[in-house]
């Protein structure tokens, strides 16, 4: 059930986009800020202690490697993982490269999710605004409904697929600590960018601070 949470979250986000035809930009930013703080708190609470407790000296290298993997992925995804989606309306073609890197990001971050951990909630919550924004784009670009559902389904399946692959294949399970370190780097980069980009010109915003504190505290509580 827990490994299905990221899958359910994608449909929750996409379903909300279907219901709310004209999304409120301010509310989406609040949701992005909340998910960023939740995710950052989850990785600090769970993945970071776990990888450093392993005693493996190379984990720091893998952690920074993960940060750079995410930077490279964002050249192709244009930051869709943290809620950026600036695609020209006149661009009629589906952004395959963007979608592929978004899927690769999801597959990777699903890998270290094994069993009942707080990180599953962090990843799941982070999927809601992403799926919402991506589904809004599909709805606005007048993509046929069956095609939009198929695209969302592929995206939704990626994280649970990563969890299953990493759990079932000996190759992945024997490298779980480096994988966890890489994903920690990926998630650190995404979550800090989520927090950074949700604030405009560093202006004080009480609502944003409150949702971020709430997100951080909730992640520790779970
Ligand atoms: Zn961005
Ligand atoms: Zn992600």
Can you walk through the features of this model?
- The model has no long low-confidence stretch (mean pLDDT 89).
- The chain has 222 residues and is mainly α.
- Helix 2 runs parallel beside helix 9 (206-221).
- The chain is 76% helix and 0% strand.
- The protein binds zinc ion (2 copies).
- Residues 81, 105, 109, 126, 190 line the site of one zinc ion.
Q: What's the layout of helices and strands?
A:
Blueprint: H1 5-19, H2 25-53, H3 59-77, H4 96-110, H5 118-140, H6 145-168, H7 170-174, H8 176-197, H9 206-221
Helix pairs in contact: 1-5, 1-6, 2-5, 2-8, 2-9, 3-4, 3-8, 4-6, 5-6
The structure holds zinc ion (ZN) (2 copies).
Index terms:
222 residues; binds zinc ion
Give a short overview.
76% of the residues lie in helices and 0% in strands. It has helices spanning 5-19, 25-53, 59-77, 96-110, 118-140, 145-168, 170-174, 176-197, 206-221. By secondary structure, the protein is mainly α.
Which assembly state applies to the chains in this document?
A: single chain
Number of distinct helices: 9
β-strand amount? under 5%
The coarse silhouette is globular
Bound molecules: zinc ion
Estimate the helix proportion, in percent.
over 70%
